[in-house]
Design brief:
Elements: E1 6-9, E2 12-15, E3 19-20, H1 26-39, E4 43-45, H2 53-63, E5 71-76, H3 83-97, E6 102-107, H4 116-128, E7 132-138, H5 142-151, E8 156-162, H6 170-178, E9 182-186, H7 198-207, H8 211-220, E10 225-227, H9 234-241, H10 250-257
Parallel strand pairs: 3-4, 4-5, 5-6, 6-7, 7-8, 8-9, 9-10
Antiparallel strand pairs: 1-2
Helix pairs in contact: 1-2, 1-9, 2-3, 3-4, 5-6, 7-8
Length: 279
Amino acid sequence: MMIAPDIEANGARIPALGLGTWTLRDEACSDAVQWALAAGYRHIDTAAMYGNEDAVGAGLRASGLDRDAVFVTTKVWHSDLAPDDLRRSAEASLKRLGLSQVDLLLIHWPNRDIPLADTLRGLNDAKRQGLARHIGISNFSARLVEEAVRLSREPLTVNQCEYHPYLDQGRVRAACRAHGLAFTSYCPLGKGDLIRNPVIRSVASTHGKTPAQVVLRWHVQQPATIAIPKSGNRMRIAENLDIFDFALSDEEMRRISGLAGPDGRMVRPSWPTEFDGAT
């Protein structure tokens, strides 16, 4: 059984590869969580907005693993960021998950209509009240990372953002490194488009790995970087974890990073959002 190494970030130890669960529902979701944990995953990512926290909780319980063996992340939706709303959202998430505490609670998206100082106060309170062991942010630009770090009295451990070889996230990643935050890549396989890319396929052939394994290896080989690929397929879930027995060369890392372009972003919300750069 392969186990992902941990990333250390401002007091948190987070497995470098986790199971993303966005779009998974009901039994398909609980099955995927069980398969992942049986394969060696020790990091599961969900969110209130996903509508699957109850299924994630069922999968956690069915795994038979001790609670402390699994790092569980959930998120508060951008409409619930006023302090009282944030607390209620976190408490509801815990009830659905069947947990007394999550390992990591994130702001899912920033909300321009709710003062960030209020949101960070509510997030800090959630940690102090024992609802979460660690706290962090998601979809924050470099400028907002700086502001959030300044406003938070508790250490922030993660910024979770879209990231894959088609999207250069250098600016926000640098802001995270400057403040000791890990960077979690969602949509790490570029919604599957990358597995058909000739550069990726060539590198995969060299290493006897799948294109998806090469892209995930590219993620975790970068400093303080975590990837959370989503899959409901038992074989692919296991394959996605099988990336810690090889390494990409510096040249291969550069070739893959060189795939980034001005139209690389694939996730854009319907509300106004601040992104770094042209992408």
